[in-house]
TrEMBL record:
GO terms for cellular component: nucleus. The lineage of its organism: Eukaryota, Fungi, Dikarya, Basidiomycota, Agaricomycotina. This is Zn(2)-C6 fungal-type domain-containing protein. It comes from Rhizoctonia solani. It comes from the Eukaryota. GO terms for molecular function: DNA-binding transcription factor activity, RNA polymerase II-specific; zinc ion binding. It is found in: Nucleus. PANTHER family: TRANSCRIPTIONAL ACTIVATOR PROTEIN UGA3, ZN(II)2CYS6 TRANSCRIPTION FACTOR (EUROFUNG). Keywords: Nucleus. SMART domains: GAL4 (SM00066). Residues 18-47 form the Zn(2)-C6 fungal-type domain.
Length: 579
């Protein structure tokens, strides 16, 4: 057959709706899922979400971002014209909800208009869950609002600013889709199969107890984000909602603190036109919580635990929002309350267990890791009889900080001891000797068998234990030995953290609890490859503001380290980040 008789070949046009991977590489895509190009090359095929409307994603830059962009950002980003009344919930099962203060204070009423109930979304297990979306890792340029330039500028400068904003969005924009959008990612969403029990407890509670309508938003929050805020979230799933309702009722400031955290999470992970207003409303709720907090702390009718809970819930918001100054201030305010609860200046993490110690354990975590970040002594001592434990830490127990934050309790105790040793007024030789003993103890500790329903989660939890082991070794070299980044032991631990973390899927549980370890390893990383890997693990673990603070601080450390030729201590940068 002659070539002239062949049917004309239809040219293959570049895909407009193909996968994000092909778009990033500027390749042709057959628009299948997964596409043939990604299948052949063996790389992840990232699909762009369907676009029913152009979402508006706004970023809040801190001062370091302004300095990096070198442009006039004094006016900030354009504020949304969406009313705050639309910001509390997307689940329009009620039209109004009120939060009432006591008789001596002002009555606060939140009007929640019915915005229309969106089509229900199905979880990886076939259950209806609230509709939440987030921007993909590769954001469209239109999703970022350029700052308004007040001065007369040329088109070239405007193009330059847009390019810088685009680069910022690619590096620091939201990366995590939560809840996961693909069925095969169901193991990340509920790896312990605990959501059915939590959902059942919500139904029972709603049927048998008269609760405020606004608490329904809390229920939706725990169905979607519980395993992002509590490491071992499946210990008592049938008790979770009832316990949270008790905390919700303890005080008005605790209630407002819980609500502003809920709205903040939605603003971080929900992809909708309400995202800017959700962020603004979270700040408004936080402002109300701050106003109410002094009244609750001075109220003689409130118990010490209720006051401590108020501080814990407000600090929880400040942590995720990156409000460092207030976070550290409230942490100091909690010290006398914790001391009153314990009746001692020592916290034994290996014996603290149960719901009634939750706030004390949260404070202990903040105390230990705030001291790591700011190079100050801890407010409490952390003495525990390690020998009595027989070198075993049981993951299934609701004990210490491990069940909440994922760090093995023994490692947390040894981190606190390392901090105490770094501030001890002893000879350098004696400090070095004790540091060697600490490192030996960290290396030789035998962790208990990690427990989980699914084998993939058991493997991930074993990896978490080893990652924390190497992070603790690095902290000893940072605080005690002042080791150079080129130290062989240091580099071995950095490489091990990178290698072991590759077995932990990014963005879910337990990865979203490992940022301190990635940061500590990143501070010692010397090669561009290792630095990029660890920075990516931090930014890929969630969409919160404090993660960008960690990434920026790492960049500053690397810049100073490269200039001076020696390790730049992150402790010289107080209150620039939080663990």
């Amino acid at each position: 057959m002659s070539s002239s008789s062949r049917p004309p070949h239809k040219p293959f046009k570049r895909s407009k709706d193909g996968c994000l991977t092909c778009k990033q590489k500027r390749k042709k895509c057959d628009e299948k899922w997964p596409c043939s190009r990604c299948t052949q090359t063996g790389i992840e095929c990232m699909r762009a979400p369907r676009r029913t409307a152009v979402p508006v994603i706004r970023f809040v830059f801190d001062t370091r971002v302004h300095q990096k962009l070198h442009s006039h950002h004094s006016d900030g980003f354009k504020k949304s014209n969406i009313s705050l009344d639309y910001c509390v919930t997307s689940h329009a099962t009620y039209n109004q909800a009120s939060l009432l203060e006591d008789e001596s204070s002002t009555r606060i009423i939140y009007n929640i208009p019915n915005t229309g109930d969106p089509a229900p979304m199905t979880s990886p297990h076939g259950e209806a869950v609230p509709r939440l979306r987030v921007a993909p890792r590769l954001l469209d340029l239109g999703c970022v609002n350029s700052p308004r330039i007040t001065s007369k500028s040329t088109k070239a400068r405007g193009k330059h600013n847009s390019t810088q904003l685009w680069a910022y969005a690619q590096d620091y924009g939201p990366r995590v889709v939560w809840p996961p959008s693909e069925p095969e990612e169901g193991e990340q969403f509920d790896p312990e199969d605990a959501l059915p029990a939590i959902r059942q407890s919500i139904n029972v509670l709603t049927d048998n107890t008269l609760i405020e309508p606004i608490f329904q938003e809390m229920c939706h929050f725990y169905l979607n984000f519980l395993n992002r805020v509590i490491y071992n979230y499946a210990l008592k799933p049938e008790r979770t909602i009832g316990w949270m309702l008790q905390r919700f009722k303890l005080s008005e400031s605790a209630k407002l603190g819980m609500l502003c955290t809920v709205v903040l999470f939605r603003s971080n992970y929900e992809r909708s036109m309400l995202t800017p207003s959700l962020y603004v409303h979270a700040k408004e709720l936080y402002s109300l919580a701050q106003q109410r907090l002094p009244l609750d702390l001075s109220d003689p009718k409130l118990s010490t635990i209720a006051k401590l809970t108020s501080l814990t819930e407000i600090m929880n918001y400040e942590f995720y929002a990156g409000k460092l100054s207030s976070y550290y201030t409230h942490g100091a305010q909690a010290v006398p309350l914790v001391r009153e609860v314990l009746g001692s200046n020592n916290i034994d993490l290996l014996t603290l267990r149960g719901e009634h110690t939750f706030d004390v354990r949260c404070f202990a975590w903040c105390d230990i890791f705030d001291s790591l970040a700011t190079s100050r002594p801890t407010h409490f001592t952390y003495e525990s009889d390690l020998e009595c434990q027989g070198h075993v830490s049981v993951m299934s127990d609701d004990k210490g900080v491990e069940a909440i934050f994922g760090c093995p309790n023994v490692i947390a105790v040894l981190l606190a001891r390392t901090t105490a040793l770094s501030h001890a007024g002893i000879l350098i030789e004696e400090r070095a000797q004790q540091g060697m003993e600490l490192e030996k103890l960290i290396r030789g500790w035998e962790f208990g068998l990690a427990k989980a329903k699914r084998s993939c989660l058991r493997v991930a939890r074993v990896a978490v234990q080893e990652i924390w082991r190497h992070a603790a070794i690095l902290y000893v070299h940072h605080a005690i030995f002042k080791s150079h980044p080129s130290n062989l032991t240091v580099q071995d631990s950095v490489k091990n953290i990178i290698k072991i973390s590759s077995t932990v899927p990014p963005g879910g549980n337990p990865d979203c609890f490992l940022q301190p370890t990635y940061f500590i390893a990143g501070a010692f990383a010397t090669s561009q490859k290792d630095r990029y890997a660890l920075k990516s693990r931090i930014l890929g673990s969630g969409n919160e503001r404090y993660l960008r603070d960690l990434a920026f601080t790492l960049e500053e450390i690397w810049e100073e380290t490269d200039k001076t030729g020696r390790l730049s201590s992150w402790s010289k940068k107080p209150q620039s980040f939080v663990f």
